[in-house]
Amino acid sequence: MGNRTKALVLAFIFMVSARGYGQGETGVPFLMIPTSVEGNGMGGVAASLITDDAISNFSNPAQLGVFGLSNSLSLSTYSPKTDWLPGFASGLSLDATALSAGLKLNRHFNLPVPISVGVGYSQVYFDLGEFTRVTPDGTVIGTWNAHEKSDLLTVGIGIDYVVKFGLGYSFKWIDSELGPFGTGQEAGTGIAKVPAHDFGAILQVPLIDVVSKLQKAPVAFNDELAPLFDLTFGYAERNVGGGVSYGMQIQSDPLPRQGVLGWNFEAGLMSEVNHRPWKLLTFTWAREAEDVLVSLKTIETVPAPGDTMYTNLISYKGGLGSIRPIDNLLLGKTYGEIALQKGWQIQVAECLYIRGGSNTDVGTLLYQTHGESFHLNGFLKILASLGVWNPRHGWGAYFLSHFDLQYSTSVYTSSRNGFINGTRFSSINIVFK
Questions:
Q1: Which one of 16, 52, 84, 343 is most buried, counting C-beta atoms within 10 A?
Q2: Euclidean distance between CA atoms 278 and 307, whole angstroms
Q3: What is the pTM assigned to this prediction?
């Protein structure tokens, strides 16, 4: 087997495994791997889960709009990179890095409601490993590193008027380099470059704040403790673009266009530290439905004896595709082409986050997840509330109000797919508020 063929076989093995995340025969299936470490701890829920982790922009660019309402800067990176399909000992790895910058316009302009804008850059890099090209007699004549990557430039806008609403759009550049040269009678090379885009929206409804505004009095248990109950809804459409071709446009494959709709609720107790809101203890439950919005029909023709040509006729579903909000998101039913992600999270004092979840595709449990996060800012708030540390002035006050260092990790477990079992994601996130 030639080395380029080995690379293609390796990519095919990955594709077969990745198709558990969605349906349809598509090109560059690495785009369907969930990248949010926090979301991966909750079964893959990420498009509707508001977070200040910049890597979340891959899941829903609207995250960036909401991000700017409370934060100025976020730098997130995998640490270390993820070994993909560890049970297969494949040598595949996944890496992600992202930077988000947000600006609350009310700091500079007199606006009737809080409005933010944001811009971000992010990259996912999927490493297929290094390969060699040899002649029939075994002489090495070249090497290359097979890889696929996606670069995103994201813009977002957020509005906070009782409810928070975010919109986002990502320009996406996809680069798939399976091999730099053809072999035998192959046309072109193993290189494909495709432009695409993502877009999305997020709406968060803080029900306790809504009630407080309607009755013109805060809802609270006492001067130090108040209830919290937020509902959040998110929609994203990802990988919107043309076909993926490695030299012959007539044989191109569609991008794995995804439609994702989700919701979650967070309930718990609120307090204050240094006159700033502080979530003491909350529980979050979330569910998302995902559909690969691709319809593919392959036509075979025989233009000459011994030759067979394959032409792919590509079409896409519109809107929500086959997603049914009541059946999928409320009743938890999955059928046909719908995948469901379900997750939960317990957070303590904005310091410790414990997560769990599951991913189900067409009624079959693919894998379960668990994960944790530690936030330095929450730990500092605990010290301040206990009187161990007095951050009223100087650097202490600045760190408590404007800085956070976060570490997150999540793990897949699966009895059905040994290849994916044990896949671990870890990331570091630096945030300036």
A1: 343
A2: 68
A3: 0.87
Q: How far apart are CA 60 and CA 47, in angstroms?
A: 5
HSE, CB side, 13 Å, CA atoms: give it for residue 208.
16
Length of the chain: 433
Domains contained in the chain, number: 1
- Chain CA centroid to CA 256, Å: 15
* Structure tokens belonging to residue 320: 């929500």
212-235 per-position pLDDT tens digit = 888 888 888 888 899 999 999 999
CA atoms within 13 A on the CB side of 268: 19
Tokens read off for 387? 């009187």
Residue 426 sits in which domain range? 3-432
Distance CA 266, CA 228 (A): 7
Do the beta carbons of residue 234 and residue 201 sit within 8 Å? yes
Nearest-angstrom CA–CA distance, 188 and 252: 13
What contacts 103, CB < 8 A, 6 or more positions away? 68, 72, 116, 117, 118
User: 360 CB contacts (<8 Å, ≥6 apart)?
Assistant: 334, 339, 340, 341, 342, 366
Tell me the three state secondary structure of residue 369: strand
Is residue 27 within 8 A of residue 192, CB to CB? The reply is yes
Beta-carbon contacts of 333 under 8 Å, excluding residues fewer than 6 positions away, are 324, 327
Q: Which of 429, 394, 399 is nearest to 76 (CA)?
A: 429
First to last CA, the chain: 54
Please name the amino acid found at residue 37. V
Identify the three-state secondary structure at position 245: coil
Cβ(430)–Cβ(74) below 8 Å: yes
Q: How many CB atoms lie within 10 A of CB 238?
A: 26
pLDDT of residue 311: 61
R_g over Cα of the chain: 24
Cβ–Cβ contacts within 10 Å for residue 214, how many? Answer: 9
Q: Which portions of the chain are predicted below pLDDT 50?
A: 1-24, 183-186
302-329 in b/e form (b: 16+ CB < 10 A) is eeeeeeeeeebebebbeebbbbbeeebb
* Digit-coded pLDDT (tens) for 284-308: 999 999 998 887 666 666 665 656 5
Structure confidence at residue 345 (pLDDT): 98
Report residue 377 as tokens.
Answer: 């800012």
In 3D, which of 111, 85, 82, 109 has the Cα closest to residue 96?
A: 82
> Residue 22 and residue 17: Cα distance in Å, rounded?
10
* Three-state SS at 56: helix
